[in-house]
Amino acid sequence: MATAAAAAAAAAAAAAATPAAAAATPAAAAPAAAAAAEPPSAAAAAAPPLVQQQLLLGPGTQEQQQQQEQEQQQQQQSLPLLLPLPLLLHPLLLLQQEQEQQQEQEQQQQQDQQQQEEQQQQQEETNRLVLQQGRCLLQPGGRRMQQQQQQQQQQQMFGPL
Description:
This protein has 7 helices and no strands. It has helices at 2-17, 25-37, 40-45, 49-57, 62-82, 85-138, 142-158.
């Protein structure tokens, strides 16, 4: 709508510049006048924010427009840093949680492995003792030898009785 008004104004200016077109000026000026008569709020509603400002406030100097554009760019550049601070921290928190979970899992795996090794050592020791006792029982005079071995083990551990 703003471009239609600008085009009509340009046509009116061109028509006024030539004497032959001077007669056509009222016909060309009618659409321009209609576009200019349209309330600025209706034209501004369909335009981007910066254009809305220009339509509502009217034409300003180029310096004012450039300053407004610079301010708007600065605001847009600073917004990503200001708004989503929790969102920026969120991936870091997720990463930290994942690392903590991995550490806990590794610790749990190490503890499980240690328990398995201890159980395996205990089982091996039990198996060795059972085999030793079984050999003693299978030999002639096995019970007596078993008792002697137990006494020897006790003497080694606790000294002579």
